[in-house]
């Protein structure tokens, strides 16, 4: 079973040198995460183990009943937590491809695509953009969207007509893991069902305003025969940035290239003299809306980095106080013992 889920020769070699293997633990993959437990697929069974800190797609070591230990991740797709903490929410681990799903109808949302691509690039996985509901439009949406994807492959697909489903299937191999990242109502579930040729996922209605209702309520890994493994996630209402700049630079590589030509190395691309980025905007070579989105995402990433550092300092001070308190208790106990002898 685990070979079908992506367990390969490299992981097997790493596992053979793992002390947990020698201690009798089993390798497995997290296929579902619930509040206090995870479902782990082993070689010949699925076990439910109490755990926290795991993500769907994680490879783990487990005794099959009481504990799990997360093995090193190759890729990690995460976003800023929906609450007000500085924590990152890991959506999926060990993903080979991130399919950014955006409905072509009524029209693709370029700024949302840029945000999702930033997360996808930061994960370390291969990003691909899928424009669903292509049967509802009569113009070339692919060329339009390619202007913001900067070399990332863009495919228009339709679960209704089967348009380009063969192209999409050709990008997925058995043993691969992929995830569909997009808003509710983008047609993710319908697309997967059309690929699988069977109702693998539940589908929901789309409201009159084009927004969908959540049909997926939890993250889980589903194996599709001949097409590898899909990590199914609820539609994203928000795409909060994490403190990772790599995704920003990859998504906006055109702006990064222009920035290298600015007069000042610390140019903020606002009102500075000699700014090559602003010059490109003035010459209509760069869409000002794209630059605005770049600045917005850049500020979010910087904000999360500051919050993360602040929380780290608080945790460090708390740990230092705990160690000092523990040392004081030990010294006092030792003093009492010496005094009574």
Automatic annotation (TrEMBL):
Sites where the protein binds GTP: 132-135, 182-190
Predominant location: cytoplasm
NCBIfam families tied to this protein: ribosome small subunit-dependent GTPase A
Top-level taxon: Bacteria
Composition skew (Basic and acidic residues), residue ranges: 329-341
GO BP field: ribosomal small subunit biogenesis
GO molecular function, one term: metal ion binding
Record's keyword terms, sorted: Cytoplasm, GTP-binding, Hydrolase, Metal-binding, Nucleotide-binding, Ribosome biogenesis, RNA-binding, rRNA-binding, Zinc
Region described as Disordered: 307-341
Compartment(s) of residence: Cytoplasm
Residue sites binding Zn(2+) per the record: 262, 267, 269, 275
GO terms for cellular component: cytoplasm
EC class: hydrolase
Name assigned to this protein: Small ribosomal subunit biogenesis GTPase RsgA
Domain called CP-type G: residue spans: 85-239
Organism classification: Bacteria, Bacillati, Actinomycetota, Actinomycetes, Micrococcales
Provenance organism: Jonesia denitrificans (strain ATCC 14870 / DSM 20603 / BCRC 15368 / CIP 55.134 / JCM 11481 / NBRC 15587 / NCTC 10816 / Prevot 55134)
């Amino acid at each position: 079973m685990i070979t079908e889920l992506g367990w390969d020769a490299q992981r097997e070699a790493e596992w053979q040198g793992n002390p947990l293997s020698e201690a009798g633990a089993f390798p497995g993959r997290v296929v579902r995460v619930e509040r206090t437990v995870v479902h782990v697929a082993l070689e010949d069974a699925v076990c439910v183990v109490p755990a926290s800190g795991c993500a769907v797609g994680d490879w783990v070591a487990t005794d099959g009943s009481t504990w799990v230990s997360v093995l090193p991740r190759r890729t990690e797709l995460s976003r800023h937590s929906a609450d007000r903490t500085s924590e990152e929410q890991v959506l999926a681990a060990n993903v080979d491809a991130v399919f950014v799903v955006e409905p072509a109808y009524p029209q693709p949302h370029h700024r949302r695509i840029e945000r999702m691509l930033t997360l996808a690039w930061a994960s370390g996985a291969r990003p691909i953009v899928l424009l669903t509901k292509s049967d509802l439009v009569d113009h070339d949406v692919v060329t339009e969207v390619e202007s913001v994807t900067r070399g990332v492959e863009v495919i228009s697909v339709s679960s209704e007509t089967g348009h380009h489903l063969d192209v999409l299937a050709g990008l997925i191999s058995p043993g691969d893991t992929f995830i569909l990242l997009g808003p509710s109502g983008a047609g993710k579930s319908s697309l997967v069902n059309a690929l699988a040729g069977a109702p693998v996922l539940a589908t929901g209605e789309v409201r009159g305003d084009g927004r969908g209702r959540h049909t997926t309520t939890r993250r889980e890994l589903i194996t599709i025969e001949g097409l590898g493994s899909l990590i199914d996630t609820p539609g994203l209402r928000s795409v909060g940035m994490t403190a990772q700049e790599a995704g920003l630079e990859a998504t906006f590589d055109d702006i990064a290239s222009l920035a290298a030509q600015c007069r000042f190395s610390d140019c903020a691309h606002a009102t500075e003299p000699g700014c090559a980025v602003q010059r490109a905007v003035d010459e209509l070579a760069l869409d000002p809306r794209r630059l605005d989105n770049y600045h917005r995402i850049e500020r979010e990433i910087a904000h999360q980095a500051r919050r993360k550092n602040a929380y780290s300092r608080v945790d460090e001070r708390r740990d230092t106080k705990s160690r000092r308190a523990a040392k004081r208790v030990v010294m006092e106990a030792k003093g009492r013992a010496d005094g009574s002898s």
